[in-house]
Amino acid sequence: MSEPSTRLFQPPLTIATRESRLALWQAEHVKALLQARGHAVSLLGMTTRGDQILDRTLSKVGGKGLFVKELEVALEEGRADLAVHSLKDVPMELPPGFVLACVMPREDPRDAWVSPRCADLAALPPEAVVGTSSLRRMVLLREALDRLDRQDVRIEPLRGNLDTRLRKLDEGQYHAIVLAAAGLKRLKLEGRIRKIFSPQEMLPAAGQGALGIEVRAERAEVIEALAPLADRATWWAVAAERAVSRAMGGSCSMPLAAFATWVEAPDGGSGVLRLDAAWGHPEGRGPVLRADGQAPVASLDDADALGTAVAHALQRAGAPEGGLSA
Ligand SMILES: NCc1[nH]cc(CCC(=O)O)c1CC(=O)O
């Protein structure tokens, strides 16, 4: 005895999704979870501007919002009921009328080093080229390389979906690339991971590794159907991380890292959350600035307040409001 029989007569839920292998994996994952709860589910695949623009760094052409806009139009027009996103790609403020219905359990939030030849940064040959797709990784890699006195190593932009990035590595355009462990693990490519960076070495981006589901705010029945998929501990942690980005000026294309971990799990409804944040100048001017905080968290609002406080600490340390997004 589980599902109420009315479920049987509900129309199918349609998931709007990008068509990269990772996006499809994520949509299929949500589809399977919903089907297991008795829902009929179909997928609506679509190409976004973010998928089409492959030749420039994303921050120069309008930021990560490019990956979600087409999906939102499909929700608005009623062609789909929900959109599954890598939370990292979701802007801090959703457009009016849209909400995050839930945040799901987190995959590995850390960054991965992928290289056929070099075990780690220290093993790079002279004048080596390391590829990566985000300003955050560029800034943190530069810092790590400077610490090794490796000013000879070049960090070059790397765009495209996971398969494209790995192909560019395999073709020899880069000695190594750095990308999210979560994507590699989801696509069963973890065999390519040579090393995982600890959060101390390379602080992850807000929301990295977590999936969020976006819906129209007025679709109460869809929100209700998604509620069982939520993971509260992940949701509150990423809420704190996202609050850092929001308080830093809202742009999601700045060289900003924010990563929260539970010091005490929120089992009984409340826990203790630790939040680390880092900001670096996009052109590598000056040191990477860091701030952290820790607080009891028993609600999304508590998590938000912690994130805002850590962002303000980062600003007191010298990070500009607005984050100097490129
Ligand atoms: N910006 C693209 C993107 N969005 C989400 C992931 C990976 C998986 C995740 O963080 O959930 C990636 C690839 C990457 O950063 O290497």
UniProtKB/TrEMBL annotation:
InterPro entries: HemC, Porphobilin_deaminase_N, Porphobilinogen_deaminase_C, Porphobilinogen_deaminase_C_sf. It comes from the Bacteria. It holds the Pfam family Porphobil_deam. One of its GO terms (cellular component) is cytoplasm. Its EC number is 2.5.1.61. Its cofactor is dipyrromethane. Transmembrane segments: none annotated. GO terms for biological process: protoporphyrinogen IX biosynthetic process. Residues 13-223 form the Porphobilinogen deaminase N-terminal domain. The modification S-(dipyrrolylmethanemethyl)cysteine is found at residue 252. Residues 237-314 form the Porphobilinogen deaminase C-terminal domain. Binds 1 dipyrromethane group covalently. GO terms for molecular function: hydroxymethylbilane synthase activity. The keyword DNA damage does not apply. Pathway: Porphyrin-containing compound metabolism; protoporphyrin-IX biosynthesis; coproporphyrinogen-III from 5-aminolevulinate: step 2/4. Tetrapolymerization of the monopyrrole PBG into the hydroxymethylbilane pre-uroporphyrinogen in several discrete steps. The porphobilinogen subunits are added to the dipyrromethane group. Monomer. Belongs to the HMBS family. This is Porphobilinogen deaminase. It comes from Tepidicella xavieri.
